[in-house]
Structure prediction request, 302 residues.
Amino acid sequence: MSHTRRAAVMLMALGPQVAAQVLRTMDEPIVEAISREIVRFDRLPPARRLELLDAARAELAGLIRGVDGNMEQFRLALFAALGLSPADRRPARSSDPPGPFHFLWGQPPNRIATIVAGESAQTIALVLSYAPATLAAQVLTLLPAWVRLEVAHRLVGLQPVHPSTVEVLRTAIRRKLDRLLTEEHLRQFSFADIATLDDASLKELLGHLRRKVNGVAVGWDDLIVALQGSGLESVVARLGTALAPAEADRLRREVARRPRVPGEAIVAAQRHVVRTLRTLQERGVICLSPTLDETLDPVAEP
Prediction:
């Protein structure tokens, strides 16, 4: 069997999605030759086609076992098995259309691994089948060994998936990314970052802090104490823009005449205010991550 015909059979055994990823790394003459062999393959008797595909799948499974599920090594081994030299490979074309999970590919591998870690091996295989080869390999190395091997096996036998199913998964993965980015942002959010809040979020925060419990506005008292910290002039100025002039003056006077408290009390008060922010974020009342919508395409609500 010629190298080109063998390559055609092995690519058909890989399934259309993974095969498309491999074909995009080949030069046009090689792709055209393999395409002609695929057409010839379809003319073979069914029993012969099944025999060739079974043999190809067995060989592919051996390649996967040999590289312990490392997809980059698998691709290199596949090219060697196909009898193709590195000169036959080329970078993916910039004109290649973005896949349904393109919003993931600009994220670091560890973040992508965190997002897909709780998914089934079949789902991970589907997502990574659209990823650039090097990135997919990096993500796989961050997964447990048994998951990595199972995903690699699923990639070999991956069959076409209905577009509606891919769209449901795309929406779910996108939302997982949104939540993860928001959680990371919340963990990094400090009291001084209040100055970065938009007007609507700032007014929601101030309104919540003014609420009284047993006749005492505990949250507002925390805010006054928290503002005693050093280097918070930008926070005070930002709060002033969200208040009516009279209220802004009253806030400044309260901060100025409040007796100084120990640094530990100031830090505790700042944490209480940030905790209130996080509660409002979790309830969907305010948004602490306005840049997410600028960096990721929107997801339609069901």
User: Anything to note?
Assistant: Residues 189 and 214 are 30 Å apart (CA to CA).
